[in-house]
Amino acid sequence: MSRLAGRLWAPAVWGGRATGKASCQLLSPRESAFVSSTRAAGLRGRKHAPSREARQTAVSAAAEGAAEAGAVPAAPPVKATRARRAASKPRVSDDTGSAAAAAAAATASDSTPTPVAPSRPRRTRIKPAAPSEEGSGGGAATTTPTAAKPTRARRNSASKKATADALPPSPSLQEQPQAAPVTRPNGQSGVLLVVDGNYLANRAYYGYGNGQRLATSKGVPTSITYSVVRTLRAAIRSVRPTALAVVFDHRGPTFRAALSVLDPSSRTRAGDAAARLVQQGRLDWTDLANRLLAAEPLRADLRAVGAAQDAASPRAYLHPTAATFLPPAGDPAATTSGNPAAEPPLDAAAAGAASSRAAGGWNAEYGATSPATAEDGGDVVRMLAAALGPELAAECGLTEAVAALEAAAAGGGRAVLPPQAYKAGRTPKDEEFYVDFRNLQRLLGLMAIPPLSRPWLEADDLAGLLVQQAVSEGLGVRILTGDRDLFQLVDDAHDVALLYPRRGAASAAASAAAPAARGVAGPGAGAAAARRWDDFPFDELREREVVGALGVRPGLVADYKALTGDDSDRLPGVTGIGPKGAVQLLTEHGDLEGVWRAALEGAAGGIAPKRRAALQADWPAAQYTLTMARVLGSPGAPSGLPPREVLPDRLLQRLALRGYEEAGAVAAAMAELEMWTLAREAGPGGELWRDFGGGGPAAAGVDTGAGVGAAQGAA
After folding, report:
1. What's the pTM value of the predicted model, to 2 decimals?
2. Which distant-in-sequence residues (6+ apart) come within 8 Å of 226 by Cβ?
3. Which residues in the chain come in under a pLDDT of 50?
4. Hey, what CATH topology would domain 185-249+313-326+428-449+458-508+533-550+658-693 get?
5. Can you tell me the distance from the alpha carbon of 193 to that of 245, in angstroms, rounded to the nearest whole number?
6. HEC string of 582-619?
7. HSE-up of 298 (CA within 13 Å, CB side)?
8. Euclidean distance between CA atoms 131 and 302, whole angstroms
9. Which of 232, 304, 437, 704 is the most buried (most CB within 10 A)?
10. For the chain, which residues make up each domain, given as ranges?
């Protein structure tokens, strides 16, 4: 009876699931034994599971029955519930019988259809791991999941920046090994570090102290001076140069300002006439720039300023009578009316303005000045008219402008001159900037680092000429700047690289100066900020990184700007051509001249009709920007000015880092500016003195804090 009941009960419960037959169908004795053993193995009470011998007998009987009856068709899989899937997971137990029952169930599932469908697998792509370097057959294969497929937005972003993504990021200078200067084939060794002083000054003025700029207890601003000295120190420690040059823009107009009177996009009489002359082939911008640079008044100014700066000793940057850095108390130069007794107490702004007037009184030819004392533009118009010649000057309306200047000079009036478009519209800085700016230049001169500036030229031009001179003598060059115009000077073949600011540099600088900006006074005021002297947020850019940033190689930076224009310098471009279009045109046609030849070929040149019409209409403006954007010393730049007339032959020897001779005066000057941490290290044998090329403390043989103590005692 028990056997008959098993044959009737088992199919009703397990028949449709285990064998695929109808639930009312009778099973053979061997099939019934298999179902019963399977059910027994799946019971929760593992103590009721059959023994190992019984399981083996049941499995063997089931296998023999299947062989006799033929293959049993599998039933459609039934989706398992969460509870059933959880119950199907193997359980870890020390019970030998339970483990044996689980093994029997696994064996049975291998030879029969699975009663419950497995859960859906995770969508993780698996690929075999790459073979090890020792050989692919050395061990078991491992698998790692691949990255998820990027979204459409990320794919589009990656396609737009394909050139930049293909380039590895430039390592930080702090992560690069500090190697010794490289010896070059001609036997010379060393690296010249060229620093854009104007960039560092603006970076410090607008980025330090979170809007709370640094100043002494008497109101003399020091944000720029303190920041630039710290940045120079960090650059020297990171780059390890053998020579250092800091370049600045000179006060007054430049030869580019003279060219900008004829800006074809200015819609003035002179600009329209210049565009017409270019279309007729009667005016070439590069030739006009060479004639301006060859003008005798310009060269006379260059010679005079160069000789004065070359003859200036470090002590020439001190006060002429008191031998101090800042004007002494009661100095007539530090007051507005010249009578100290009649002057009320000065507040912070008035003290800064007084310091500015006093500084400009004895070294105005070395530093910059505020826009209020700049030239009125008369010399610019006269030089431009002379460079154009009588015929072209008359067509551009400059002859009448020169006559108006002469009449105004004779009658005491003021003439209306053509506007200068170059860098027009920039917001002028307040007097506080120029006070701090001039103090920085004077402090650098006292530290035997001449603040290089030349009339009619910009800091970029001096950097280009310095690179040209250093390369000719076999030196490598690093240019510290945030100006993309200097990308064109990068040259891997001659070891010329750019030190460009990393993102977030301004915030890092602000956090470094925050303790001093909160008004902490005394000798330890800048201790917290000085601990971050090694923060140098600049990365080294080579030709590969320039291509990744702009899409063109360094030699085509000016061509790139000629097509896109430059809003910051008020330089026009070609209408309808942006960065992407400029890169495409320069890639297909080589340079700006190649783009122009393709535009003249019509449809055969491969340029769309709308873009071709824009190139033909704006061609004079594109050529104008090409000449304006090229830095002196770079390939294709105006060469009418011999470099030896701007920079003397022995300048590189003077720029060598050997320490500053007036170490005591430097420490006293920094103490006057209340930069206490730097002042303690600036004295003879101090750490700052050694950073700028001086010998060790043993060689100096003096106390490093002597200069600071003397200055504080005098105060």
Report:
1. 0.68
2. 204, 208, 214, 513, 516, 526, 673, 675, 678
3. 11-24, 41-60, 62-76, 78, 83-150, 152-153, 155-160, 162-187, 332-375, 505-534, 696-715
4. Rossmann fold (3.40.50)
5. 6
6. HHHHHHHHCCHHHHHHHHHCHHHHCCCHHHHHHHHHCH
7. 26
8. 67
9. 437
10. 185-249+313-326+428-449+458-508+533-550+658-693
